[in-house]
Structure formats: structure tokens, C-alpha cells
Input
Amino acid sequence: TQLLEQSPQFLSIQEGENLTVYCNSSSVFSSLQWYRQEPGEGPVLLVTVVTGGEVKKLKRLTFQFGDARKDSSLHITAAQPGDTGLYLCVCDSWGKFQFGAGTQVVVTP
Amino acid sequence: DTGVSQDPRHKITKRGQNVTFRCDPISEHNRLYWYRQTLGQGPEFLTYFQNEAQLEKSRLLSDRFSAERPKGSFSTLEIQRTEQGDSAMYLCASSLAGSRAGTGELFFGEGSRLTVL
Output
């Protein structure tokens, strides 16, 4: 079983639509990170959330950390083809970064 | 460019052969990680180092896998007697961390893709 459960596994939407991806766990974390990976490249950090209930915005991306620090969500407003990629939720387990299985997002023009 | 570099980018080998991958991290980073990734899945943790010390190795990793970071700089990942199930992308990442429990940012290389025939 995965420490971090991500849903959905795959999301295909049209340009301009909104989307939300989720990261859930039964464990409590001091922080969670979101990375995005494009084909042929390594993952790149988008954000780190550290406080329960925290909301962070990065242009059209909004990240939320659950009050109980067990879950997080990523919302993209008015998606663009450049948002296409594998979105990964990550926790730091005493120095060992563990990844969820990811959500593959495809935004078509 | 002083990012994480991996070599080779692609390796095709026959079952039973040994392969070795090299990772050069960002120079001031003290932590180095190896992950394995299959298509459409998230990276799976293999092992990590702080300086030259290997702090943890995944229980999923068989004895055919070994990693070293002899001088606390570059690292090698060797797979002995490769099997078809070893085919995957092997990703290396580095970070700067001051304590075992701290959080930091992982900087990834572009990966080494292994195909075992």
C-alpha cells in the first residue's frame, strides 16, 4: 500500500477548464510537497506546504494542506496545455522523500 | 550548468549483464537519492546518502542492487545480473539538508533509462 494515495490517476481536460487533484494519507505529516514532471525530465518542485489549513497560490495553481495535515489538494484554474504533466505528491519521512503514484494531467488545446 | 547530471542517459543490455549508472549531484548538496520510475508511476525510493554514508536502503531492493558514494560527491548505482523487470528509469536527486528530519527540495537529474532485453 502507498503511504500517499493520489487521485485521480489520470485526468484529461480541455484548455480553459479547471481541475483538482488530491493527495491523501492516514498519516500525519509535518509538510507535504508537490512536484510536476514532464516527459523525459525529472520532477520539479512546485510548492511545500507546512501548516495545517495552509493555502498557497502559484499563479493559476492553488495548493491546500488539510487541517489535520493528512491530505493536500492542487487546484488549477483555466488550465493550459503547458500544465500537462505528472503531478506528484511527496512527503519527507525522516529524510527519505516518498512519492505518491501521481496524477497524469493532459490539457488539450 | 551545475545541475544534477546522470550518465548514461540510455542503456540497453541483455538479461544477465551488469550495468552501472553514475550520478553527479549539485556540488554543495550533502544528500543524494536514487529512485526507480516506471511509465506513468511516481518515483520509487531505492536508497539515499548523506555525504558518503548510506542512510537507508529500500527493502524492495534486492541484493543485486548496490549503490556507493565513496567520497561524498558522485554516486554509482550498480545492478548485477539484470532481469527484464529491472527495465525502468533510474532517477538521481540531490538536496541540501541539515538534519535527518528536515525538509528540503529535491533536484533531479534527467534520469538513466534502462532496457533489459
